[in-house]
Write a structure and sequence with these properties.
The structure holds 3 protein chains of 3 kinds.
Chain A lengths: L17 H6 L5 H7 L2 H11 L11 H6 L10 E6 L9 H7 L1 H15 L3 E6 L4 H16 L17 E6 L9 H8 L16 E3 L2 E7 H19 L9 E7 L6 E6 L4 H6 L11 E5 L8 E2 H6 L4 H6 L8 E6 L4 H15 L5 H18 L6 H13 L7 H15 L1 H10 L7
Helix pairs in contact in A: 2-9, 3-6, 3-9, 5-6, 6-9, 13-14, 13-16, 14-15, 15-16
Chain B lengths: L12 H5 L1 H20 L26 E2 L14 H5 L5 E7 L7 E9 L8 H5 L5 E2 L16 E2 L1 H6 L10
Antiparallel strand pairs in B: 1-4, 2-3, 3-5
Chain C lengths: L3 E6 L2 E6 L4 H7 L23 E4 L6 E2 L10 E3 L3 H16 L15 H9 L18 E4 L2 E3 L9 H9 L5 E4 L6 E4 L12 H5 L5 E3 L12 E6 L8 E8 L5 E8 L12 H5 L1 H5 L6 E3 L2 E3 L1 H14 L4 E4 L6 H14 L2 E3 L24 H6 L6 H10 L2 E5 L15 E6 L11 E4 L8 E4 L5 E4 L12 H15 L1
Parallel strand pairs in C: 1-5, 16-17, 16-18, 18-19, 19-20
Antiparallel strand pairs in C: 1-2, 3-4, 3-5, 6-7, 7-10, 8-9, 11-12, 12-13, 14-15, 14-20, 21-22
The chains are: A alpha/beta, B alpha+beta, C alpha+beta.
The complex binds flavin mononucleotide, iron/sulfur cluster (SF4) (5 copies) and FE2/S2 (inorganic) cluster.
Organism (chain A): uncultured Sulfurovum sp
Enzyme class (chain A): oxidoreductase
Protein name (chain A): NADH-ubiquinone oxidoreductase chain F (EC)
Amino acid sequence: METKIVSKRFHIPESYKLEVAKKHGVYGSLEKLFTMTPDEVITAVEKSNLRGKGGGGASCGQKWRYMPLNDPRPAYLIVNADESEPGTFKDREVMDKDPHLLIEGIICSSYAMNIHTAYIYIRGEYKWLADRLNTAIDEAYEAGIIGETLMNGACDFKLDIVVHRGAGAYICGEKSALIESLEGKRGHPRLKPHQKECEWYFGDPATVNNVETIASVPEIVEFGYEAYTKHGTPKSPGTMLFALSGPVKNPGVYELAFGHKMIDVINTLGGGMKDGKKLKAVIPGGVSCPILTADEVNKAVLDYESMWDIGSTLGTGGMVIIDEDACMVEVAKNIIEFYHHESCGQCTPCREGTGWIDTILHKVIHQQGKLSDIDNISDVCGTLNGKTICVFAPAVADIIGSIVVKFRDEFETYILNNQGAEHE
Amino acid sequence: MGIKTVKRHGDTLRDKLYIPAIVSGMKTTMRHFVTNIKDNSNLITKSYPEVQPTDITDRYRGVHRLTKREDDSISCVACYMCATACPADCMFIEATERTDGVDEKMPAVFNIDLLECVFCGYCVEACPCDAIRMDTGIFSFVADQRKDFILSKEALLANTRSKDFSDD
Amino acid sequence: MSNIVNIVIDGKEVEAEKGAVLIDYLFKQDIDIPHFCYHPALGTDGNCRMCMVEIEGSKRPQISCDTPVKEGMVVRTQGENIEQVRRDILELELINHPVDCPTCDQAGECKLQDYYMAGGFYESRLEAESKVKAKKAVDLGKNVMLDQERCVLCTRCTRFTDEITHTNELGIFSRADHSVISTFPGQELESDYSMNIVDLCPVGALTSKDFRFNQRVWFLESFEAICSGCSKGCSIHVDHKKEKYKDDQIFRFRPREDHDVNGYFICDDGRLSYKDENDNRLNDASINQETVSTKEALTNIADVLTANPNDTLLLVSPFLSNEELALIKEYTLNNGTTLSGYSPQYYDESFADDMLRTSDRSPNRAGMMALRINENEKDFNELLSQKKVIVVIENSYFEDKAELFKDKKVILFSSKDTKVKEFANTVLPVASFLEKDGSYTNSESVTQHIKSGIRKNAPVGTLTSLWKAIESLSKEKA
Ligand SMILES: Cc1cc2nc3c(=O)[nH]c(=O)nc-3n(C[C@H](O)[C@H](O)[C@H](O)COP(=O)(O)O)c2cc1C
Ligand code: SF4
Ligand code: SF4
Ligand code: SF4
Ligand code: SF4
Ligand code: SF4
Ligand code: FES
């Protein structure tokens, strides 16, 4: 069932070491890369229809085209390794098991966009991964793979890679907040530009890409986009690292071509539900997207378009499985606590709305809920949706709103059964 | 809009002569005079101030008082809402920083000039803190100098709710 | 010209500049679109989400502070939908707000209050006890008080210290609804323009320590004037009030938007200079230290002037208005007295900066120069040694130089109580800078007019009226 492209070396012991990884083909794409022009690389990535794995699913090649050509300013590649979304833990696998693949991807991408400095912005809590990356980068410098030239002079192209540790804010995964943070400021997302353009790091052009996206590039360079698009569906070609968590027998990260049925993945790779429990719901793409009920899970197909069609998104591919024992009120409370804690606090609806929902659910759980609270939560979700600077707030509206709508009965019963004496 | 014409009273000859009206008025006066001379126990007029009224209702607006919080400190936060509402412009407040941590602000000066006050009660209505009330039951306030009619913050705080009023 | 396009705002066709920010045109149409974070001086930040409008063709309401004007755009600021959106956001803005308007100095000029009164009026859905608590009454230094609970996190203040003064004292701390504004650890506000954040703050989170609890703003009356703190002559609003049984008193200055002069801001020194108007005033006329009536003093002055025109030096100052200077200059021309505007004491290099403040701490030197009133030091010293009668008019030059008056007859016109009074033969109080009408020309040759709104219980005469009285008294004599 699995299609191993990014994860091809994950099973090899000590594959994070340069010598081991090298034996198994890392940096194999570079020879081909140096025969291509940067434009050819971008075209290949465009044609491969590689889509961003950070949650948005936008075409990577198209995004690279927004980088201004022949610009005198330095350009930057910023690799987004902030992975803080609950239920998403795929990037860490890449950095843990195959950091040289990421470096190889950075080389290909930087070459394509004529970038000489790449940053890896890594989540603060991933200290051991930052160390691992730094070790790998040191190895690469020592081996002459990066530095003043690439591959010991095989290509006269300077490239430096710098690992920057964040301070542990989820919002710094949002690309513009990430850049603000990298610039040394508070991680506040910026207003969306009015036209499609690249990002700006200290006023210089920059591209932000997810770890997995970058790690997928060498495959496309080495074997051509045709080989890549053979996998998956026509609109969602290639593979993606899917993370399974929750009460399944074999939780973990699995690389799959797009187009598999979600329920099959849960039952085969995931090994089915633990202890014979019934599946109740799945949050498909990290917790930031609408929840799927068991019925919907049976219909769900793992590619971008199919997921949109059933009213959710593929997000980061991190599937959070929920079984029949779970109380949806508590699930909602757990999730909103996270968002309440992580909202950057910049825009009013998100700053105050996440806290308000948290307060309401706190009341509900402490025996002081009223039926009107359910509508109040839906109302606040309405205000969170589409009225903020970044998509953090709409994501809250998506997940909390969908839980409240799809499991409304459960909320009503919970409130009616758990009303304290002081309430009617 | 139409105009309604109201007929004037007092147009008849009888009315214009006055004498019949005076006579009928004197008749009433004499009747009372005679009854009261015979028995004065039913008199409506009181020998004030020896006899004090007993039928004042809780809604009666007497002299103001400033209320206190549970910890016995002043409730008023010197927001000037009362002074803003006051049609007689007879409240003189000066605010100051409150440093005991209970609130931020309180009046340093709070004077009401009772000679100017029209006892409308707007100040009571306006107060967002229930800090001023007119439930002292003091309906007659006397002094022999103008300046004594100006009640200070201390005097207003010393006033209490009338004992005759119910407790709610 | 091709840059001008037509847009429709609430059914009205309006010309607008392509690419400009839509909210500016809403302001121009006198539409009071709710907004907290946008400020023309600070630009767009887009965080408050209050300025939402409906734009035909876009699915969702858009914030007008970040919407560029496009040809044919149809904008709606009214209607049930958009008003509901606004109400929802306002409700969120208020859920953690302490609403302690009774103790809040902003009450009466608070945007939260205004917007609630204009479009709120919903039933509260949040209990007071679940509100997030934060620090109140924090002294930020430089006359600014902070109440973190009242803050709506519009970041106008931080953007001001970051982008306008570049002093970077303020930041946001913590996240989500625990976010608060504060100075960075160990720092205080230090800019000489700090108090502008009090005006910028749309709510009562930042208030002036100087004005704190002094007056409720709705009692204040206001007139437009300029600041006399330096030759920039920043445009201001003078907020004053004549309370019952008291005299008219100035409570504060606020900057007045004026793109020819100061833009949106004024310096703190200028702002607090209102105190000079209230304090230290000269009230009584006197002759040889004996209090006399104004009439007597006037007659005395007229006598002295008509007796010694050729032996008289009139010393005016750049604090006088163009009209006053012209009047006195004309008198000099007609009567053969001499005139000087020598006033070096107002120069203070340390006051100047690269924002607004200049080194000349007087408001009308340019006006004095335009009238060609001589302020040459050598000429002045020469005249001073020759002339027997010195008439000092609102000029503080002699403040610590009374010894120069030896063997002279001194006439003093002043609005301030000054030591010079003790050495003057005749003293006459005059109306102060803001108690009179007049025009002033600033260092950039912009002439502004003040029409005073102050009504003192016992007004002292303006220099113009007094001088005219002297002139007619002199004529009677002649
Ligand atoms: C609230 C929020 C959190 C995000 N967190 C991450 C993250 O942790 N890692 C990531 O790669 N992208 C994250 N993103 C998506 C990024 O903004 C951005 O779209 C992505 O890094 C682009 O890379 P891609 O095109 O390769 O997916 C987040 C977005 C939002 C709105
Ligand atoms: S939506 Fe939330 S996280 Fe995003 S910018 Fe606004 S406050 Fe910050
Ligand atoms: S009762 Fe009326 S007139 Fe008297 S102080 Fe109150 S508001 Fe003013
Ligand atoms: S009495 Fe009430 S209304 Fe008057 S100042 Fe005090 S708190 Fe405000
Ligand atoms: S800022 Fe002050 S005046 Fe405005 S609503 Fe809050 S407490 Fe009231
Ligand atoms: S203190 Fe005032 S200006 Fe500063 S962010 Fe808060 S509300 Fe805005
Ligand atoms: S004024 Fe437009 S978002 Fe604040």
